[in-house]
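W.,

You were right to be curious about this one. When I first looked at the sequence I had no strong expectations either way, so I just let the prediction run and decided to look at it fresh. Below is the sequence, 119 residues in total, followed by the output.
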Amino acid sequence: MTTPDDAVEQALWERTVARPDEDAAHTAYLEHCVRAGQLPLAARRYRERRDALPVDDPSRAGLEKRLGAVALLAIRDLDARREARAVEPGRRRQAALLLLAVLVVAALAALVLTALLRS
């Protein structure tokens, strides 16, 4: 089954193939792939096009440039995910401390109530 993201990716890819020297087409394609989580697909597509060309073909340089852009975008995406995960343990710690504080207050209240009932 084809998803809307797949259809958009396919259309944008076909545009980059039709206009290989147009930076705007490649930029739009890569921006979509970042948003849709399809950078591995973009890397595969660029690599396959590059590898299909003879080694001395001048267009390989442009495809190498695009592969470099995909790599940089993937690194940026990984860094952003790592930073997002780094925030989560801090929130967990806060929740654990809040729970501990509530339990301590409840235990103290139980001790005070027990002492009042015994006297």
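Here's what jumped out at me. Residues 4-88 form one domain. And, maybe more interesting for your project: The radius of gyration is 27 Å.

Coffee later to discuss?

I.
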